[in-house]
Amino acid sequence: MEHGYDLLAPKFDHTPFRTPDSILRATTDALAELGPFERGLDVCCGTGAGLGVLRALCRRSTGVDFSTGMLAQARAAYPDATWVRADARAMPFAEGFDLAVTFGAMGHFLPAERPALFDGVYRALRPGGLFAFPVGAMPPPTSVAYWGTLGFDLAMRVRNAVWRPPFVMYYRTNQRPAVLADLTMAGFSASTVALPDGGITYQLVLARKPVTPSRSS
Description:
One of its GO terms (biological process) is methylation. The protein is an alpha/beta fold. It is built from seven helices and seven strands. It has two domains: 2-136 and 175-208, Rossmann fold; 139-174. The chain has helices spanning 2-8, 21-32, 49-57, 68-77, 114-124, 144-162, 176-186; strands spanning 39-43, 60-65, 82-85, 97-101, 125-136, 189-194, 202-208. Strand 6 and strand 7 (202-208) form a beta hairpin.
């Protein structure tokens, strides 16, 4: 995955895999009502699309990703931000951020990997800090999107069964109930709200770290 994203980095912003600007704007608008935020963290920042959200909400921003190619593109677009190369499942932060976001990255984590990811974000946030990210609703079985995402995931599973190294990217492994349950297990108080212009397609996950943590960080 790391090498693949290094190669894709110069073209990534022109692919359909980049989070649409409409979702980024809707997330910014929703989070603006929950601030203020001093320091923001973009988890799995890629080429930095989420930094535009953090720039509008925070005084200082940091992006973390494991791809040097992606970080190079992000650094060129947002030279005033701080950039850290690290695996999101083992981030080197401790209570340094008021807000953490991630966009388009959840499909790269298998369900068994989510606890490590969420634990790392929990540690990175100050007490009372917020972790936010959009999630798509499962389309109805009668829709083209339903069969499109099913077909994509099945194709990826076949690909990963016969080709090494595997490339983890699935649309249907991070459904809202399971994600909220894992966030709760990590110590967050988690809920979702509809994005202002996301209609019924997207919800914004809001996971708050308690001011008095209920677990050891």
